[in-house]
């Protein structure tokens, strides 16, 4: 073991509307590793939830095909047994066949949105007892749900934009009542699915007629929706944060959008940047704001990340009025929602340094968890065997 390279499993794809973004992020991450120091194993979850591994996954052109038909790609699954933390390929061997086991030392999930950014796959890694990069189950779930995140951040004194939130069933049962609440908030507002990123399903609306249309769209992506007050004259400022106990904030950026807000096309399809997270967006780095306001946002970034019990890496987006110094936290993008290689590069860290730091944090967090007692043996089973289960107080 001491002479072998650590094996890093990079997990990506999955049943998510951000599936394609995840594939791009995974390839950026895999290209960032030092091949002399680490063995990288791609683990692709297709749109139907089937798991695959193999060297063919390293070629991004293959994802335009049915990967199950490619000879260098094999169906696999993650063993749920803590004695065998890794991949079993194929998951079910045919007659006279034999499955192979591949150990995974650290999991690096780049699954965006549903089933990846929301704490789901983090829970799987916890059960298997594999160290993994990024925030834990709780912080991932909080960061992924804009409604819950806002409520928690308010309790910690972090300013957030006013909103009206509602469930899909409320909208379907009484849309006029929902629109009446939004009317009190005041137009214009942003309609957002509560649990998605990459600007999927997000729209700025100026009146109730447009709100009705875009709520229908948002409700198709999430069971919870929010209408968020638009900050007129505000600019977007973003800051990345990384660490475990001691947190570090990056330089700030001001993205430049072709629309009233950063659309999916702005973030990923326009020519421009080269790094994971908002690949195609134009931006000004460092953001053209005062040193005092920069420090205020960097401190707020660390405060907010700590508030959700975050560790690993995240990018936090703000709405700012530079002339007044007013700042509102808009959204927390936990990993893999953003790795922000471009912000860390501007802060003096290469993509390779970022992924290696994240692996170190993952190992440190896992070592800390080992200090927690999970195995507790009581006399309950002995009493149940003697008295019967009906005699045990529930």
Structure description:
The chain has helices spanning 19-30, 120-128, 137-144, 146-155, 168-173, 175-185, 208-221, 264-268, 291-307, 341-346, 351-369, 380-387, and strands at residues 7-13, 39-45, 51-53, 74-78, 86-89, 100-103, 106-109, 163-167, 189-193, 203-205, 224-229, 235-243, 247-256, 282-284, 312-321, 326-334. The chain is an alpha+beta fold and 394 residues long. It folds into 3 domains: 7-132, Rossmann fold (3-Layer(aba) Sandwich); 162-229, Dna Ligase, domain 1; 233-368, D-amino Acid Aminotransferase, Chain A, domain 1 (2-Layer Sandwich). The strands form 3 sheets. The chain has a 7-stranded mixed sheet with strand order 6-5-4-3-2-1-7, with helices on both faces. The protein has a 5-stranded antiparallel sheet with strand order 14-13-12-15-16. Strand 15 (312-321) and strand 16 form a beta hairpin. The radius of gyration is 23 Å and the shape is globular.
């Amino acid at each position: 073991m001491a002479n072998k390279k650590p094996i890093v499993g990079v997990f990506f794809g999955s049943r998510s509307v951000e599936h394609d973004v995840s594939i791009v992020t995974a390839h950026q991450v895999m290209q960032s590793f030092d091949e002399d120091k680490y063995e990288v194993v791609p683990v692709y979850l297709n749109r139907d939830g089937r798991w695959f591994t193999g060297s063919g996954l390293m070629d991004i052109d293959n994802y335009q095909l049915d990967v199950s038909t490619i000879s260098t790609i094999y169906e696999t699954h993650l063993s749920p047994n803590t004695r065998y933390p890794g991949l079993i390929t194929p998951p079910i061997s045919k007659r006279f066949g034999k499955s192979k086991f591949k150990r995974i030392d650290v999991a690096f999930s780049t699954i965006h949105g549903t089933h990846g950014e929301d704490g789901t796959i983090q829970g799987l890694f916890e059960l298997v007892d594999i160290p993994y990069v990024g925030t834990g189950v709780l912080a991932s779930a909080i960061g992924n749900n804009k409604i819950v995140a806002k409520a928690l951040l308010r309790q910690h004194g972090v300013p957030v934009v006013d909103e009206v939130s509602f469930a899909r069933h409320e909208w379907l049962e009484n849309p006029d009542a929902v629109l009446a609440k939004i009317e009190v908030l005041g137009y214009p507002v942003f309609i957002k699915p509560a649990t998605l990123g990459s600007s999927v399903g997000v729209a700025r609306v100026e009146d109730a007629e447009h709100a009705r249309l875009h709520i229908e769209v948002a409700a198709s992506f999430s069971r919870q929706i929010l209408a968020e007050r638009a900050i007129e004259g505000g600019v977007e400022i973003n800051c990345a944060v990384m660490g475990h106990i001691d947190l570090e904030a990056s330089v700030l950026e001001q993205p430049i959008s072709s629309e009233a807000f950063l659309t999916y096309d702005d973030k990923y399809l326009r020519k421009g940047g080269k790094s994971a997270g908002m690949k195609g967006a134009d931006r000004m780095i460092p953001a053209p704001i005062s040193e005092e306001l920069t420090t205020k946002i960097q401190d707020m970034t660390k405060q907010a990340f700590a508030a959700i019990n975050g560790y690993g890496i995240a990018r936090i987006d703000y709405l700012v009025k530079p002339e007044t110094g007013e700042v509102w936290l808009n959204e927390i993008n936990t990993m893999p929602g953003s790795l922000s290689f471009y912000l860390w590069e501007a802060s003096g860290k290469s993509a390779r340094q970022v992924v290696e730091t994240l692996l170190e944090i993952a190992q440190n967090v896992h070592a800390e968890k080992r200090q927690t007692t999970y195995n507790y043996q009581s006399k309950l089973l002995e009493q149940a065997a003697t008295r019967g289960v009906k005699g045990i107080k529930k």
